[in-house]
Amino acid sequence: MENSYKKIFTANKEWVAAKNKENPNFFAHLAKEQNPEYLYIGCADSRVHANEIMGLQPGEVFVHRNIANMVVNNDLNVLSVINYAVEYLNVKYIIICGHYNCGGIKAAMQPKDMGILNPWLRNIRDVYRLHEKELDTIPDTNDRYNRLVEINVYEQCLNVIKTAEVQKSYLEKGYPRVAGWVYDINAGILNDLDIDFEKELTRIRKIYDLTKGG
Ligand code: CO
Fold first, then answer.
1. pLDDT in tens, 149-199
2. Residues spanned by CATH 3.40.1050.10 within the chain?
3. Residue 47 annotated among the catalytic residues of the structure
């Protein structure tokens, strides 16, 4: 264990050397500012690494990760990340990225007491209840589980669209747009759920319009 811990610092030195060799200004340039075009909200799962699956370098994507890529309306952590990304970094896209075989989604589908995880999983169980009709038509448990992964991404996109800063920024400046993706962990492929952002924004604003005042 000690060795695998120490290995990290050796690997870091090698990475710095490689980056400097590639581009001697790499760190000096990055240290000045960040100007990412994307905010990525994904699962904390160790197998789903934002930069790597998107082919992006440090500085190119602002990242927030939690269990099952949730946007919970009283979670100051994710809300602060969205606020900062929209109002200060002026990101052009906010991406919710879920993934098949997500342990958080699977746990939410188990009807049992998960202790401190209960309130978090409750948000996913609420998504299930909202889409119960569709999910209950899927006989295969695994297919149902994967469909819940997709539906959860969709609901979290709506939660992003419900925020005042996203609504106001989009109407004033034309960005950010919100997108939902599912990463296929078996093949390494990113699938775009092709959520119709404009349509969802209009629909959401019927009830959650926060563009006035503030
Ligand atoms: Co996950």
1. 999 999 999 999 999 999 999 999 999 999 999 999 999 999 999 999 999
2. 35-208
3. yes
Sign of the CA dihedral 128, 144, 100, 112? positive
What SS3 class is residue 185? coil
What is the per-residue pLDDT across 123-149, written as a single tens digit (0 to 9) for each? 999 999 999 999 999 999 999 999 999
Q: How far is CA 40 from CA 108, 144, 183, 199, in A?
A: 23, 25, 13, 21
Whole-model pTM: value is 0.95
Residue with tokens 């004033």: 172
Question: The CATH number of 35-208 is which of 3.40.1050.10, 1.20.1250.20, 3.40.50.2300, 2.20.25.10?
Answer: 3.40.1050.10
User: How far, in Å, from the CA of 207 to the mean position of ligand 1?
Assistant: 30
Answer for the pair 70, 154: CB distance below 8 angstroms, yes or no: no
Active site residue 45: yes
8 A C-beta contact, residue 41 and residue 97: yes
105, 142 in Cβ contact below 8 A?
A: no
Tokens of 183: 């990463």
Q: Which of 43, 64, 97, 157 is catalytic?
A: 43
Active site residue 157: no
What mean pLDDT comes out for the span 22-35? 93
What's the pLDDT tens digit per position in 96-122? 999 999 999 999 999 999 999 999 999
How far is Cα 66 from Cα 144, in angstroms, rounded to an integer? 22
